[in-house]
User: Fold this.
Amino acid sequence: MPVLKRRRGPAGWAALAALSLAPALLVPLLLAPVLLVLTGCHHKNTAQVSPPQALPPRAQPAPAEQPPAPGGNQPSTKIPVTPLPPGGVSREDLEYVATHVPILSEIGVASWYTAPYKGRKAANGEVFDDNALTAAHRTLPMGSLIVVTNLKTGQSSAMRISDRGPFVADRMIDLTIASAKAVGVYQGGLARVRLDVYQTPKPISTGGRWCVQIGAFHNESDAIQLKEQLLELYPDANVIEFPGENSFWVRIRPQGDDRAMAAYIAQHVQPVEGDAYLTRLD
Assistant:
């Protein structure tokens, strides 16, 4: 049965952040800016070129906020803006990465994406910028400081999480054009990478505000049918159906944006198309 599917800083900073952050180069990165000229956009060669993904669909807010259940603790449906440094990362971010070790690492496939139109906002509430060193991840806290390393070429760059996605199976992270060029993913479209988390504004393993995004559906009727089924199963949840690019999606936010309930829904939903993605909102 169908039952959810996501600045341009000064040119000098983008180039500085694109430098390889291998341990042997961390100190030179800070002490010898002249090495910036060595960084260009290296691209890996692949047999096939993956087309860029569009910006993950952004759900429209519900017309009205649901009142809290008696005695409950229902948060506002609005997610606050998470501001990022101009260009995605700052000098302080690079110094922090150079003097600390990762608190978490993941290995997976990276792709790159762009916005379907100018001025579209990313999930952090700011206007999406192809030229900013930022990325989309489904579950890391918004604003997390990370380093992405291309496991084939060794190219790496610091960046921050500003968006949600990728809503594609078997992909871990989506990069902006600037981030993709910095780590050698732009030309090939896909690459196996290591994601190192250095700093998060909120805890990773506890708390947070969560939802499940389901899709993509080719037929709007399938998305609407799933929405109706979810509303019957979870009457206290906020469920919406919304369009993406040539597709349709369903998003369910359990009461209180509770992580455990969202994870339960993601594990048990069985959409006729696409998949169910546990997604952090904040």
In short: The CA atoms of residues 213 and 277 lie 5 Å apart.
